[in-house]
Amino acid sequence: MNLHTTFKGKKVVITGHTGFKGSWLSIWLVYLGAEVHGIALNPPTSPSLFDSASIKNRMNDNRINIKDDQKLINIIDRIKPDFLFHLAAQPIVRRSYIDPLETWQTNVLGTVNILNALKVINNNCISIIITSDKCYDNQEWLWGYRETDRLGGADPYSASKGSAEIAFSSFYRSFFNKGDSNILIGSARAGNVIGGGDWAENRIVPDCIRAWTNSEPVSIRAPHSTRPWQHVLEPLSGYLRFAQALKDNPKLNGNSFNFGPNSDQDYSVLDVVKKLSTAWVNSSWKIESDSDIKKSESSLLKLNCDKALAKIQWQPTLDFESTIEYTRSWYSDFYSNSNTISAYDLCLNQIKSYTSSAKQIKNKCI
């Protein structure tokens, strides 16, 4: 299961490589020795991890809108990737209320354009379509959603992700499950990732960092809502492992997998804020009272990841304390030690630490 062996020297396309998760995945794949090609718009935030870590200098950076189907076909056909990870999306729930059309166009039609480009190219390619834990029709159950549970969502973002999953299933059953198909494909569902280098709007960790670096209180909405918090490296490790498993076992073609933390890792938004605050002088917070904002937030959403353990031998590595510590230390070093260590090396060091911890957990289970 050595990832270096799987990805070294391989051509890998990442859509959304300028975003938070895409930047971390780009760094990891460069470290694994892959030839990385990105397809995305400009970084969505300033600052951004993509720019702060100078990732552009280590990969092939293509600024293309995934809604442009012909440009997408042309570049993917030119690259002829061995692997493709589709992460490009409009990822913010609250923004989906402000601009639902853009959310639907990017998350659904953009995904359809990726799937159609894969249908057109002639080379063999293993593809992972990343959606979200919010693709499920959330009933706020106490137990985790399984991959066979109903898709859907009340808000535009969640509904668009459920629809992207339906598009994936349709393309698989129509085009990619034939014996002569050159495409092996799967979908991956994860959410509520935190970690260093995220400066997106309306996310609790970046909101904290922005406020506290300016000595201001952070505004908290839905403080008692619980989330299955996980570090960004957890789902990324799942995506890489899924792609590797598809290569080794084509019978996994067309599968979907959840990638989430352990079931006992549900903590409230306020728990996260309090844990992070211990590293920041004069950190404080205030609770928002806007009921309309609270309505847009789910109180509970969690995933069942038994299938990933059983089928591809993936399991989470970090507990809640470690997840917060990875996140806290990254931002602390970025803001206080930027003259001695680069953002790229901060990420690389955590990737190496995470990989080592994952190996130890695996060895204990053998």
Would you spell out the secondary-structure blueprint of this structure?
Elements lengths: L2 H5 L3 E5 L4 H12 L3 E6 L8 H4 L7 E4 L5 H11 L3 E4 L6 H6 L1 H21 L4 E6 L25 H21 L6 E7 L3 E2 L9 H10 L4 E3 L5 E3 L1 E2 L1 H16 L7 E3 L7 E3 H9 L7 E3 L3 H5 L10 H7 L7 H17 L6 H23 L1
Parallel strand pairs: 1-2, 1-4, 2-3, 4-5, 5-6, 6-11, 7-10, 8-13
Antiparallel strand pairs: 9-12
Helix pairs in contact: 2-14, 4-6, 6-7, 13-14
Protein architecture, described:
The chain has 366 residues and is of the alpha/beta class. The chain has one domain (3-365): NAD(P)-binding Rossmann-like Domain (Rossmann fold), CATH 3.40.50. Helices cover 46% and strands 14% of the residues. The protein has 14 helices and 13 strands. A seven-stranded parallel beta sheet has the order 3-2-1-4-5-6-11, sandwiched between helices. It has a two-stranded parallel ribbon with strand order 7-10. Strands 8-13 form a two-stranded parallel ribbon.
Secondary-structure arrangement, i.e. CATH architecture: 3-Layer(aba) Sandwich
User: Low-confidence runs (pLDDT<50, min 5 residues)?
Assistant: 291-295
The helix content, as a percent range, equals: 40-55%
Main β sheet profile: 7 strands, parallel
- Note the total helix count: 14
The overall average pLDDT, rounded, is 92
Q: Beta-strand level of the residues, as a percent range? A: 5-15%
Q: What's the N-to-C terminus distance? A: 14 Å
Number of strands: 13
Structural class: alpha/beta
CATH class, please? Alpha Beta
Count of the domains: 1
CATH homologous superfamily? NAD(P)-binding Rossmann-like Domain
Q: Could you give the order of strands across the largest sheet?
A: 3-2-1-4-5-6-11
**How would the global form be characterised?**
globular
Compressed to H and E, one letter per element, the order equals: HEHEHEHEHHEHEEHEEEHEEHEHHHH
